[in-house]
Design goal:
127 residues, alpha+beta, Nuclear Transport Factor 2, Chain: A, 6-stranded mixed β-sheet, 6 strands, globular
């Protein structure tokens, strides 16, 4: 799979994410996909396998009225695709960190993807 094809898969995956389309996200993932979310240097979410990822993605939907990931840059580094991401969301619920429903959450970070058999094999979200 060529780099540009991989970038198109990533863009399609993020588009599905923005639309709350979990099935659309899952179609781009390898059966043994591994996901890791790192915030402030701490791993706060991990999943292994497509089913576990889908379950986590469906649960996460309830936290947001709206969410938008946008790629500000994308590049290949050591067989990984790294996307610099800007993230904005409007919360649907109060969060333990003090943010309230209706407030806007704004983050920037990066997502690092690897591929296997033409599908996303690992996703590491870092903010």
């Amino acid at each position: 799979m060529k780099n540009m094809d991989q970038q198109n898969v990533i863009r399609s995956y993020i588009d599905a994410y923005n639309k709350f389309d979990v099935e659309g996200m899952l179609q781009h993932l390898h059966e043994q996909v591994e996901f890791e979310n790192i915030s402030d240097g701490k791993v706060n979410t991990t999943t292994k396998g497509k089913a576990a990822f889908g379950e986590q993605a469906r649960q996460a939907i309830q936290y947001f009225k709206q969410r938008q990931q946008s790629i500000s840059s994308i590049s290949e580094k050591a067989n990984k695709i790294e996307a610099t991401i800007n993230y904005n969301a409007i919360l649907a619920v109060n969060l333990p960190n003090g943010l309230k429903a209706g407030e806007t959450l704004t983050l920037s970070g990066k997502s690092i993807f690897t591929f296997k058999d033409g599908k996303i094999f690992t996703i590491q979200d870092i903010s």
